Amino acid sequence: MDSINIWEWVGYLASVVVAISLMMSDIKKLRWWNLIGAGLFVAYGLAIDAIPVALVNFFIVLIDVYYLVKLYRAPTSENK
């Protein structure tokens, strides 16, 4: 049996983190977990020279950051 290298573990971890993000009912938590998972997939994709994996997940990172900024800037009922 071949030993699993560190980047395979990063890929597995990224998959688990993205799966966890999809179980979140709080949209902020979902975005944070998804951002972490997508970031791990960017690293994984670059490490194994899978540029399409890295690019699509980098795009997902940008989307998550955009919506997190939007969520944190939105006025809450306490601030009104």
Structure description:
- There is one protein chain.
- The chain has 80 residues and is mainly α.
- The protein has one domain.
- It has 3 helices and no strands.
- Helix 1 packs antiparallel against helix 2 and helix 2 packs antiparallel against helix 3.
- It is elongated and about 55 Å long.
- The termini are far apart.
Biggest sheet architecture: none
Give Rg in angstroms.
15 Å
Whole-number count of domains: 1
Distance between the termini: 61 Å
Shape, principal axes of CA atoms: elongated
Q: Please state roughly what percent of the residues sit in beta strands, choosing from under 5%, 5-15%, 15-25%, 25-35%, 35-45% or over 45%.
A: under 5%
* Helix content range: over 70%
Mean of the pLDDT scores?
91
Number of helical segments?
Answer: 3
Using DSSP, what is the number of strands? 0
Low-confidence stretches: none
What class do helices, strands and sheet pairing give?
mainly alpha
- Strand/helix succession: HHH
Question: What is this structure, in a nutshell?
Answer:
This protein is mostly helical and 80 residues long. Helices cover 75% and strands 0% of the residues.
Question: What order do the helices and strands come in, and which of them pair?
Answer:
Layout: H1 6-21, H2 27-47, H3 51-73
Helix pairs in contact: 1-2, 2-3
List the main descriptive attributes of the protein structure presented here:
80 residues; mainly alpha; 3 helices
